[in-house]
Amino acid sequence: MKQQLVSSLWAMIEPILAPEGIELVELEFRPEGGRWVLRLYIDSPGGVTLDECELVNRQVGALLDIKDPIQYPYNLEVSSPGINRVLRKEKDFNLFAGSPVRVRTRRKLEGRHNFVGTLKGMENSKIVLEVDGKRVEIEPEDVEKARLDLPEEELIRRDLRRGAAKTGDGRWGT
User: Fold this and answer.
1) Contacting residues for 23 by C-beta, under 8 A, at least 6 apart
2) pLDDT tens, the chain, 174 aa long
3) CATH number of the structural domain spanning residue 48
4) Per the domain annotation, does 157 fall within a domain?
5) Full-prediction pTM beyond 0.90?
6) Is residue 168 part of a domain?
7) Staple 100 to which of 108, 130, 136, 149, CB 3.0 to 4.6 Å?
8) Which domain holds residue 45?
């Protein structure tokens, strides 16, 4: 039932974000600390600002108040996906080709569920990884969860080497 609710929420929320140029990256609905939390992870081409999070919170909150699809009291949270964002769509797997990833599969493939390696992209409708020097192909429906596995300290070092500085609009730039 929970998965059905998540799918329904996704179908309801995603279309109202697209006209704003905002992508719904991930949606979680789960109990935390004795309360239910509906957490939306969003992204936009220039990165996510606090104003965009507030906008999405207001729009989605209003939509959910009208449609009332959730039968429990819950908190709505909106944030950026962070550096180790979830990969869900075909475009994500192609966009982040060359990046380190962690993939958990629903069923065992090659004797295991967990794969840590380099994302090569999508080929013939399969997700392609390089794991321990070997090519691994995974059907998208076999993926339970896939996310970037970028070491935070390396990202910070790379930004410092490029001379990146925080801009006045709250985004990082060079």
Assistant:
1) 17, 42, 43, 44
2) 578 999 999 999 999 999 999 999 999 999 999 899 999 999 998 889 999 999 999 999 999 999 999 988 999 999 999 888 999 999 999 999 999 999 999 999 989 999 999 999 999 999 999 999 999 999 999 999 999 998 876 555 555 554 544 445 555 443
3) 3.30.300.70
4) no
5) no
6) no
7) 149
8) 2-79
Token pair listed for 23: 């992508």
DSSP the chain: -HHHHHHHHHHHHHHHHGGGT-EEEEEEEEEETTEEEEEEEEE-TT---HHHHHHHHHHHHHHHHHH----S-EEEEEE---TT-B--SHHHHHHTTTSEEEEEEEEEETTEEEEEEEEEEEETTEEEEEETTEEEEE-GGGEEEEEE---HHHHHHHHHHTT-EE-TTS-EE-
Is there a domain that residue 40 lies in? Answer: yes
CATH number at residue 139: 2.30.30.100
Count of structural domains within the chain: 2
